[in-house]
From TrEMBL:
Record SMART domains: C1Q
Record bears the keyword Secreted: yes
Residue ranges the record marks as coiled coil: none
Highest rank taxon of the organism: Eukaryota
InterPro entries: C1q_dom (IPR001073), Collagen/C1q_domain (IPR050392), Tumour_necrosis_fac-like_dom (IPR008983)
The protein's name: C1q domain-containing protein
C1q domain location: 59-198
Gene Ontology CC terms: collagen trimer
Length: 198
C-alpha cells in the first residue's frame, strides 16, 4: 500500500516535470531530444493515472466494514428455518447491514469474523445457524430446563465471503418454538467485521 509521503513524491514529480518541460521548450531541440519530450509526456500521463488510482484505492481502503445489531426489547418465538431479525443497529460502519431484513451483503471478497449471542430462558430451546448465501457455516444450540432462568450462548465463526454474498442468522430445523429472550436491557445480537480482503 502506498502511503501519503509516496503520493506527495509522485505529485512533486508532476510539478517538477511541468517546470522542466517549459525550460526544454525554450531551447532549440534536435531530433533525439524530441523523443525525450514525448517520453516525458508519457511519464506525466502514467504518473497522473497512478496518482488517481492511489487516491481512489486509499479512499476505498479507509472505509471500515463492521456491523453490530441486536434484537428489539421483546420476547419472541421463531419457527424453524426463519431469518432472525436484528432490527436495532448499534454500529453499521460502511452501511452494509440491512436492519429491515437483517442480512449483511459483503462489499468486498475477504475473510470475515461473525459472532452472535442468543439469549433464551427457562423451558425454551434455541437452534441457530450462520448462513452465507444459504450455506450453513456454523451452528449454535441451547436447550434449557425449567428452573434455569435466563442464559446467553454465543458462537464465533471466521469464514471467507465473496463480494455481494449474503450473510444472516437463521433458526435451524430442530425446534418449532425457538425462544429469544429480553431481560434487563440484554437481548440477542449479531456482529460481523472484515479481517482482511482477498
Amino acid at each position: 500500500m502506498i502511503d501519503t509521503c509516496s503520493l506527495f513524491l509522485l505529485l512533486g514529480l508532476l510539478v517538477s516535470y511541468g517546470e522542466n518541460t517549459k525550460a526544454i521548450q525554450n531551447i532549440t531541440l534536435d531530433g533525439s531530444k524530441l523523443v525525450t519530450v514525448d517520453m516525458l509526456d508519457a511519464l506525466r500521463t502514467n504518473l497522473t493515472n497512478l496518482a488517481t488510482e492511489l487516491i481512489e484505492h486509499n479512499s476505498k481502503m479507509d472505509k471500515p466494514i463492521f456491523f453490530h445489531a441486536k434484537m428489539p426489547a421483546a420476547k419472541v418465538d421463531y419457527n424453524k428455518n426463519s431469518i432472525v431479525k436484528f432490527s436495532s443497529i448499534l454500529n453499521n460502519d460502511g452501511d452494509i447491514f440491512n436492519h429491515g431484513d437483517s442480512v449483511f451483503v459483503s462489499p468486498v471478497t475477504g475473510v470475515y469474523l461473525f459472532s452472535w449471542t442468543m439469549l433464551t430462558y427457562s423451558g425454551k430451546s434455541i437452534s441457530t445457524e450462520l448462513r452465507v448465501d444459504n450455506v450453513v457455516k456454523a451452528t449454535l444450540h441451547a436447550s434449557l430446563g425449567m428452573a434455569v432462568g435466563h442464559v446467553s450462548v454465543s458462537k464465533t465463526a471466521i469464514c471467507r465471503v465473496d463480494k455481494n454474498e449474503h450473510v444472516w442468522i437463521q433458526t435451524g430445523d430442530s425446534y418449532i418454538g425457538n425462544g429469544f429472550d429480553y431481560d434487563a436491557g440484554s437481548s440477542s445480537s449479531f456482529m460481523g467485521a472484515l479481517i482482511y480482503k482477498i
